[in-house]
């Protein structure tokens, strides 16, 4: 799942626009949007918003969370928290990226916002790396990843799942080989090291 | 022409009966004719698409949903024919149809890739499945068999016919199988208690919306029941 | 797709092509040709010979003919593994298929150390791999540093990072010519210039 697909999925997000035309509702497969009244905000999918904006048919209303105070707060919270905090949108990076690149004029303090959003992403990404560190040190190859967004997951895909596949494969090989010994030594000396033992060569 | 004629509502045009009821039986009452909206069909296809991209093995086919969506798409194209190409409505509708077509094409392509990689393995598994549990569509089965036939014929012509019989008998060894213990990213749709997550029978209760990285095989059944989806 | 050995995977063929040192346990008549230093036609017990892994792996671990000697490379990293200091090891220099070769040899290791060693080595080094593929592509450039599987993981990591950066800069939106078509175009160009020398004006060559 590369960034283009993640963007495609994120483009389904609804976002508010102010059209400069009026029209009856459109019955899209994904659901109905509209009616459109010139000068009045209406929610449409992000892919449609960016298209209309490029056609000069609307202004984009940045989502509430695209605000310096709110984002600074989120950033601080993210630094404080041991866990991943819940983002205001599960596609926050895609929304920010698309809105700010298509309609920078519609976003007050666009450049500052860009920086703080990138900061948040970077903090979360490095937190992800630290937690991967801790979890690979431990036994087992399962982990919980609540509140991580697709683009954040992308930063370790496929290297993380691939690595875990190999680790798990070699763990199975090692365990199978040890089971053979422990069966032997259990019958001979009555002692065995369980496959779950974490320390190396503890016998 | 009024935009109302371009309706995305399947109910008006295509009555969808028992077939479709298979997938959303938890939502509807036992009406004689159960209906499903185009929106719901699209959601199902999208989930199937993402699951298919992320899962190491081939998943049950979505032929019913695909057929519904294909007829919906062509129906809408029919309706749009009279609209001016530059009409704002025509542009938006065709953009959406492109998106839908992309999902369907990408989904089918992804399945073909798996079929080409694990041909014999998939065919062997299909053999053991009841007619109602087949994972491949009839067309995919046909493709898989032909593909396997061509590969076998090719190998025979260029190599195995010149080899001793012993080597020709290596058919089983040559089967390529997916690594079902591949790690996947998973999101729980509902609360799922006591999921085994490790080799030592360690268990975890999954909360709705919670996300996990976990070997595929341990959660494969959750996908089938729609209790979780891959991300 | 991630590496998962199967009949057709070229890496697996390369690994099983590797030679393994074995001790001969019993006199094998007219097999002396396997031993470069043999004096007669027979293979004498007590001699050490190198046999390919693809042959060895078909024999039972406790077969009467050969005993596999565990390569020193695995013993040599033992200390580093115990001290969790494996990241600096030039694994590719020790063996280009360090992990997979080790995996095949695991059942033959009577002390049951190899299995544990490859597992722990990978576990320790993966964290480092994640780091270097994020930070730059240079550190791992030395080909000897990484084993084959690690190189692939590293490449995957670098690719991810490039994709992300391109996406951020919105440079990835152009529809690119597929690699296959591009190769084909290059080939056509080459073929033409081979066939016709440089008689054609260059503008006419790019007709595809």
Automatic annotation (TrEMBL), chain A:
TM helices/strands, residue ranges: none
The keyword Nucleus belongs to this UniProt entry's keyword annotation: yes
Superkingdom per UniProt: Eukaryota
Domain GINS subunit: from-to ranges: 65-166
Region of interest (Disordered), ranges: 179-203
Location(s) in or outside the cell: Nucleus
Keywords: DNA replication, Nucleus
GO biological process, alphabetically ordered: chromosome condensation; DNA replication; double-strand break repair via break-induced replication
Pfam families named in the record: PSF2_N (PF25005), Sld5 (PF05916)
Nucleus as UniProt keyword: yes
Main location as per UniProt: nucleus
A GO CC term assigned to this protein in UniProt: CMG complex
Domain DNA replication complex GINS protein PSF2 N-terminal: 2-61
CDD domains for the chain: GINS_A_psf2, GINS_B_Psf2
Membership in a protein family: Belongs to the GINS2/PSF2 family.
Subunit relationships: Component of the GINS complex.
PANTHER family: DNA REPLICATION COMPLEX GINS PROTEIN PSF2
Name of the protein in its database record: DNA replication complex GINS protein PSF2
Organism: Drosophila persimilis
Automatic annotation (TrEMBL), chain B:
Superkingdom as given in the UniProt entry: Eukaryota
SUPFAM superfamilies documented for this protein: GINS helical bundle-like, PriA/YqbF domain
Residues in GINS subunit domain copies: 78-157
Annotated region (Disordered), positions in chain: 1-32
Entries under InterPro entries matching the protein: GINS_A, GINS_bundle-like_dom_sf, GINS_Sld5, SLD5_C, Sld5_GINS_A
Principal location listed in the UniProt entry: nucleus
Compartments where found: Chromosome; Nucleus
CDD domains assigned to the protein according to its UniProt record, in alphabetical order: GINS_A_Sld5, GINS_B_Sld5
GO biological processes: DNA-templated DNA replication; double-strand break repair via break-induced replication
Gene Ontology cellular-component terms listed: GINS complex
PANTHER family assigned: DNA REPLICATION COMPLEX GINS PROTEIN SLD5, SLD5 PROTEIN
Task of the protein: The GINS complex plays an essential role in the initiation of DNA replication.
Designated name of the protein: DNA replication complex GINS protein SLD5
Lineage per the UniProt record: Eukaryota, Metazoa, Ecdysozoa, Arthropoda, Hexapoda
Originating gene: Sld5
TrEMBL record, chain C:
Alphabetical list of SUPFAM superfamilies matching this protein: GINS helical bundle-like, PriA/YqbF domain
Stretches assigned to the DNA replication complex GINS protein PSF3 N-terminal domain: 8-59
Compartment annotation: Nucleus
Coiled coil feature spans: none
Protein family: Belongs to the GINS3/PSF3 family.
Subunit relationships: Component of the GINS complex.
Protein name: DNA replication complex GINS protein PSF3
Organism: Drosophila pseudoobscura pseudoobscura (Fruit fly)
